Each structure stands twice: as structure tokens, then as C-alpha cells.
Model the fold of this input.
Amino acid sequence: MNTRAGDLGYFVFERSRRGGLRRAFIILLVITGLMLYVGGKVKIVRLGYQIEALEREKKDLERANGSLRIEASSLSSPARIESIAVKKLGMVRPSKENIVVVKRKRTDTNSEIQGAKFK
Amino acid sequence: MERRGRILAVLLIVGLGFALVALRLVYLQVYDRAELASRAERQQERLVKLAPKRGTIYDRMGRELAVSLDVDSVYGVPSKIEDPSEVARQLSRILHENPRMLERKLAGDKHFVWLSRKVEPAEARKVKDLDSSEVGLQAESRRFYPNKALAGSVLGFTGMDNEGLEGLELAYDKTLHGVSGWVLAEKDAVGRTVFPGGPGFQYRLPKAGHDIILTIDEVIQHIVEKELDVALTKARARGGVCIVMNPGTAEVLALAVRTLTRTGQPFNPNEPQHYRPEEWRNRCVADAFEPGSIFKPVLAAAALEEKVVHPLERVDCSAGKIKVADRVISDAHQHGVLTFTDVIAESSNVGTIKVALRLGRERFYKYITAFGFGRKTGVDIPGEISGLVKDQRLWSGVSIGSIAIGQEIGVTPMQVAAAYCALANGGMLMKPYIVAEIVDRGGNEGKKFQPQAVGRVMSEETCAKVNKMLQRVVEAGTGEKARPSGYTAAGKTGTAQKIDQRTGTYSKKYYVSSFAGFVPAGSPKLVILVMVDSPEGVIYGGSVAAPVFKSIAEQSLAYLQVTPDDMGDRMLLVTTR
Done:
């Protein structure tokens, strides 16, 4: 009695020239499939390693960025800026005699304009 | 037959054995399943906590004052170490830790032990170079204060596990800390943590803390700390405080606390372990002191509001002393007959007490409490105290005289600064605040803090009169050294005797020298309070604290680009169309 399983058995194991070709084709197909599967897996693992390495690099860069931000903050502290301005560049605060305040009085609106504002 | 019987017997025994195993399996898998499963979970699973990133603290212009950064901590695996003393010796050279302490930690069969937390990057690199499987690095978040000691007492500091321990770090710990995450990891046969991944992987990502933006201005804070340090060194003082506020809103623009420290350096929150608790305490809110004469404007405001005196009314201070109940109170310098304005300008105790007696204790007490003395200001700095104000029903006969000149009353510097804000802004007492905004980096709406009025203390008319009187103090009174170049100013000097702890009486050696005022007097932009604790040599507030006020006012107003209002002939008026 021919069943579907029997058909398959005949297809795979029939000893004939056509059967040999079929077998070779099927084996080739299986091997190709396996290679593609393994290749894909290897690719995924490699990409995983790459992602991990990049993640680590990103983390290191973020950490370096944080360190640099703190360093920049520290270097731009008012105490340091004032120290450089006074000691290295010889800058001084303007005295009262060095300042002239100019007030503009507009004749049309009779209002005074001043530049200063409170931040 | 015998042989067949033996085979059957063997088969029976084997079958019985299988049946027993099957029964045991059914028992374990069905009856005892729940208990065994939970025991296995306990043995195989580990909840790994993921710390959130702590929020950043910025000044009002967005400059970083406190930042968190990932750094390395060094751990050891004692169960893998064969020679703990050798490893300890190697590590002690790198980490500068006690080798015996390291060896003690590395002995034993634990799978994990911290050796040094949050180490410097150079140290971490050297540990990494060891390339050892017995010692490793684990990233942890560490708090950095880039400006070192700047605003140290305000910011406070955090502990090893990033929890706020002092200052704003403590007050806003919940806001800054964020929400911890976790990962349900598995333990392998030797107890190492394995992260399974894949479907069913249970975790919750940590949620970073919110950032906060302060009302503090880094530049004004620097000016204040620098000038206070200069004054304290010059006066050989034990300490001092200074507060700068915006009188219209009661925003704290700068707050500096200085005290004698073991290291001789101001408190640096990067290294809290080098300081004692009293060295990082924020004395602006946590300590009460007798204010002395800087309290006289409170009496002046009350008396003028109640119309018991006029600014130009003449008060006889020629005796130089006055007897109140059983105590005789004297003036530091003898004066003749003075107008009430000059009573304040010359800081006459006698004249002030005479006016206080006219006002009476009930009305005076009403204004003292209206100015906010005797209760917390509500500023968002931890450790605030109420000060010491006795109920007027408990005042002795001399109390009204003593309190009028700033004795027999305990106030915090923050209360004084808030009271002077009311004097500067037209009579409205505002609630001081130091956090301007909470920023939610997660995209949700943050929170902005607005100025809050506590209540009106006096009319604008009275306030204007007190303002004029306080301008007189700076123009021709005890506060002449407070006059900033190019700006008008108003304020009051104070020289308060401290209580001698041994005798319980007023000390003749230790004083608190102070100056409180606002600039420019016409349209005040800044209220500045300077207090110097126990100066040596010259002790008067007009000589010790007033020059600090002047320096801070000049530099801060220039920084804020406030147009000078007192330039004399250096002011040009240009008419344009």
C-alpha cells in the first residue's frame, strides 16, 4: 500500500540514476541550508560582539565627556577667571573716575533710557 | 523453573525500585512543588539593583554646581584568591589603602567584596592593568562639585550610595535621586551573577533624577565668598555669614557661610570626610544670634507706622544712658539731642529705647512677628530654626529696651535678610527661596517656583521713610564705609555683644559685627547682609562688615549691569529726539 511516507521513502532511497541525482540535490540543499543557518548565527554573534564593543566605547566616551564637562566647569569657575584676569593679564576693576554714565532723555516722550537691566 | 523464578524476582525488585523513584518524583513534582520551586528561586535568583543617575544642580544661569559622573569602584573575589596578602600589598600601593584592611577583606570565601569605592581614574587604570580575575572594576555614580568649596554649605553633599546627606542635596534628595531600577538575574553554581536575557527577562530600567535650577548666581556667590574671606582674614574672625537676596522676590542670589575648620580651608563638598558637622552646618538658617543694632530699623518701622514718632522729631540722647526697669543701658558714644533719623544713623541706644517705650510692648511685638521673627522663614534649606522671640506677655521690665536695640532676641541671618527685603521692596514680607525650578528630563512638565508674599508689614509710605533714614546711616552715620562707589545705599550697622557661655553674661571680648542694607537705595536690586563672628581688634560693624557690603555691592551691581545712580558730575544727560 502506497502511503505518503512510502512515497517519500521511494523518492529518497530509490536506487536509480534519477534517484542518485535527487539524493545529491537534497544533501546539497540540506548542507546549504545548514551553512546559511550557521553563517547567520555566526553573523549574529559577531554583530553582538560588535554591538557590545560599541556599547562599551559609547559608555567610555560618555564618561570621558562627563569628565571633560566637569573639567570645563572647573576651569571656567569665576575664581579661576578672576585670578587669570588680575594676575596674568593685569586687569583691574574700573574705578568711579573711569566710568561715565550716559543717560538719554528723549524730548518727545520725556522718558529716560538706560542700558542696564536686572538679570 | 528456579532460574525463571530468580529472573522474575530481580525484575520485581528493579520494577519496585522504578516505582519508588516514580512515586518520589510525583511527590516532588506535585505535592511539594510550590515549596521547592520557591526555594530554588531563592537559591538561583538574585535581584540586582540598578542605581539611577542623580540629577544635576545648576545656578540661575545654567552653570553646573553639582554633577554626577560614572567612576570605577574596585571589588575583589576572595573565593578565587590564593594569596590575599600579596594581592592586598599590590592593591594598597595603587589605592593608597591600608594593606592589613585589604587583606582582611580579601581573606575568606566570599564571592564579592568592595575594596575601594569611587576611585580616581588613574587608580582605576592601574587596577585594570593588573588584568586580574580576582580583582575587578564596577562603574558607580559619583557626585562632583566642579567649583569645589563654592556654595558648599548650600549644596551640601551626598553619601557613598548617592543619598543626600546635607544641604540642598538632602532637602531635594527625592527629586534629585530618581527611581532605582532592577534586574532579576540568575546565580550560577558558584554564585556568580548571570544575566539571562531573552524572553521572560524581568527588569525595570532606572529613572534618572530631576535637575534643579537654583536662584543662586555663581558669580555673585564667588564675589560674596571672596570678599567675606578677605574680611575674616583681616579681622582674624572666627567665622562669618553673608546673604544676598533680590528684595522684590526674596530669591537668594548668594549665601556664604564661613567658619574655622580643621583644614583651614572652607568646606568643600567633594571631601566631606575631612570636615566636622559643625563645619558644614548652614549657619544662615541653623543658628540664632542677637542681632544688635541691625534690629533697630524694625523698631523704626513700627514706630513710624504707628505714628508715635516723626523722622525729624528731636529726641534727647544727651545723658548717654537710660534706665529701663533695673538695668542701665548706655550709648557707645555720647550724643546730644538728635532727630529720630539721626538716632538711627548714629545708632543711639538711648534714643531708640525712648521711642520703643512710647510704642509699647504689644505694638512692638506685633511688628516683630509681622517681620517674620520667631518663626521659620520657610526657605527650602534644611535645618532651619525659628529663632528665639519671647511672647510679649513673658517680657520683663527691661525687655522692651533690650529688644529695641537687638538684645534678648534670637534671630537667624535668613530672617534678618528677609526683613530687610521687606524694608527694601515697599513693605511686603516675602518667603525666601533658593530653588527656582525643577526640570524633568523625562519630558514631563517640571515645576517652577514663584515668589510668595507672606504679608504686608507696613505701608509703602512708612517704608519710604525708613528707606530715607537708612540712607542717612550710609551717607553720614555709622555706615559710611558701606557706601558703594557710584550707587546710593541704605542700611544699618550692628555690633552685638555675644553671650559668654561661662558666665552667662554679655562678653566684653566677643562681638558679632554686622551690616544689613540694600542697593541702590532708590530702586533696590540687592539686599546684602554681612555678619562677622568675633573679630579681633576693631569690632564695630561699621568698620568690619560695612566695607564687605560695599565691595559686594559694587561688584555685584556692575555684574548685573545696574546703572549707577550716584555718579555726581560723572553723569551725562544727553537729550535726543
